[in-house]
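Catalogue entry: protein
Contents: sequence, fold tokens
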Amino acid sequence: MKKLDKLNEIADEMFEKIEPSATSWAKIVHRVNMQNTKTKPKISTRRVVVFACALALVFFSGYNIIKNEQEKQRQIKTVAAGSDNNSMAVQTLAVAKGSIKLSDNVSKGRVGGIWASGSGANFPLIQAEGKYYRLLTNPSSLSDSLLSRNIGEVGLLTDEPALVDSNINIISNIVSEGTSVYAVKNMDGAAVAAKTGDTYRVFQRVSYGGNAIVGNENLISTLGNAKPVALKLSGVGTITDSDSIDTLMHILSRASYLSASSGGNKTLLLEMNNGISLQLMVDDEKLYGCGSWYCPDFFSTFAELIQ
């Protein structure tokens, strides 16, 4: 019992000897604070770089789209030799031998010329022997004396002149079935003639439906053997000197064939010594008729000779 009575004294004496450590207490407090404090997320440098790149990509993509649209608006729309365009004003030209008289539209370099246009997607043409010929507005009639070999008769009149049928040699979208088609004198492979109504009309060789030259033909092959007596380049001038014309035609014989594509927004008219005129579209040192041809020397020489 005495020991139990002294228990309080013994306990007080023991606890009086225990002194709390300031260092230990600080550590305990620090650990508690660390457990109660949530770690703040750090922003990754890589994420910042990726976000900046994405923002720059969006900006430049939008800039390029706007720039491309502006470029499209500045582009010049061209009229293809192998396709019809209702915006092309067809001009009937009065061609006197030895000179070429052009309408104001052509002389000022506007799209036009002597190729006839038609309704819808196709222009008036004849397909004969695998070649395509487009109706000319001038001459409005052709003398029988200029007819050469009889190629055959139109076997099919159709709105689809690109149709290929091994059993039909001649197809047209303007000349009636059974009508004879002729080569033009000194222009075999360059022009044909056939009656539309009561008169013979001339059709010039052109590219159509991806078809242009055949075999080893060059540009001169598609213009025939008749001799030009005048060359008229819209916006530049007219050349009638025989030697100058010979020089230019020799240069054209070396033109490089590009493709069966069509184009051009100006005209080159060639008046032949048989009174018939042929046309080529021109643009950026290229000529378009039966295919597209590259011939920069022709344009530079023409400009020198016209001075």
The longest helix spans residues 45-74. The mean pLDDT is 77. Helices lie at 2-5, 7-16, 22-36, 45-74, 104-107, 242-252, 296-306.
